């Protein structure tokens, strides 16, 4: 039996990874901050699929939280075969409206935690000559979309670079770039979503199936939906200024601060 560690496992895309990997018979290490929700998820997945689900409560915006998950990934006696770096969030507001402490918290979770957890996992995986890492970025990585998009662009560049460096070592690294997915993300960030057309919404379970198929194929970048693939292809030919105007009108409606 193999083991997968999922950060941000209790909601949205992370929970969809949990359901799918448990159904496929993987043991799980579930990481998020809310320990009650983690325990409930672990019990449900164990009861439904007969897998072992470990709970690791950690805040990845803190040194203590990142270190605890690093230590679990580095544990050679209980190897992790697949790491899904999925925990993430959006800040409420545009550039300069968001307190600097919140911007730095986002970089800690989206970039520092992803760098350190990927490295802890990949180091152990390289020794064993096998393993996989999925780093959840976003299609926002490809458009001028504030500090959120910038942090996700870092995830894409880092992951593809690391995948190149580890080519031939048996370790697969893939950046996953979803478009809009119905999860708790937008509500948590206080974002209105009425201006996002229905056709742009993706289903988390389908997204995860397509992502795992892409990982199996050895892709280092996954845009797991034909509509978004076409859009991201077209984006390369649109002037950045025009693109910035369009993206700032789509999907970033903030309520009262
Ligand atoms: N939804 C979208 O449209 C969309 C699109 C593209 C990319 N993404 C990316 O997909 C990933 C998952 O987002 P989602 O939409 O599934 O969000 P979500 O439904 O809000 O779930 C976020 C998960 O991350 C955990 N989390 C948040 N902050 C954390 C922290 N500091 N430390 C540890 N865990 C933390 C949350 O649990 P706790 O609160 O208990 O910690 C929860 O399990 C994110 O990286 C996001 O940027 C989302």
UniProtKB/TrEMBL annotation:
Transmembrane segments: none annotated. It holds the Pfam family adh_short. GO terms for cellular component: membrane. GO terms for molecular function: oxidoreductase activity. The keyword Oxidoreductase applies. Keywords: Oxidoreductase. InterPro entries: NAD(P)-bd_dom_sf, SDR_fam. Belongs to the short-chain dehydrogenases/reductases (SDR) family. This is SDR family NAD(P)-dependent oxidoreductase.
């Amino acid at each position: 039996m193999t083991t997968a560690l999922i950060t941000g496992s209790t909601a949205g895309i992370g929970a969809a990874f949990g359901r799918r990997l448990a159904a496929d018979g993987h043991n799980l290490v579930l990481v998020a901050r809310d320990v009650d929700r983690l325990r409930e998820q672990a019990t449900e997945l164990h009861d439904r699929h007969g897998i072992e689900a470990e709970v690791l409560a950690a805040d990845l915006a803190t040194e203590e939280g990142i270190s605890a998950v690093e230590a679990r990934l580095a544990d050679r006696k209980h190897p992790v075969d697949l790491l899904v770096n999925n925990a993430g969030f959006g800040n409420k507001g545009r550039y300069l409206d968001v307190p600097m402490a919140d911007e730095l918290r986002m970089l800690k979770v989206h970039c520092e935690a992803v760098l350190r957890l990927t490295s802890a996992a990949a180091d152990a995986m390289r020794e064993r000559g096998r393993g996989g890492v999925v780093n959840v970025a976003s299609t926002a990585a490809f458009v001028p979309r504030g500090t959120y998009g910038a942090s996700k662009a870092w995830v894409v560049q880092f992951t593809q670079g690391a995948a190149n460096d580890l080519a031939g070592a048996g370790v697969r690294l893939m950046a996953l770039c979803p478009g809009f997915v119905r999860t708790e993300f937008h509500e948590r960030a206080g974002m209105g979503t009425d201006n996002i057309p229905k056709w742009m919404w993706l289903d988390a379970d389908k997204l995860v199936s397509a992502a795992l198929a892409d990982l199996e194929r050895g892709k280092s970048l996954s845009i797991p939906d034909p509509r978004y693939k076409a859009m991201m292809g077209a984006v390369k030919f649109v002037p950045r200024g025009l693109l910035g105007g369009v993206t700032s009108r789509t999907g970033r409606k903030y309520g009262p601060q």
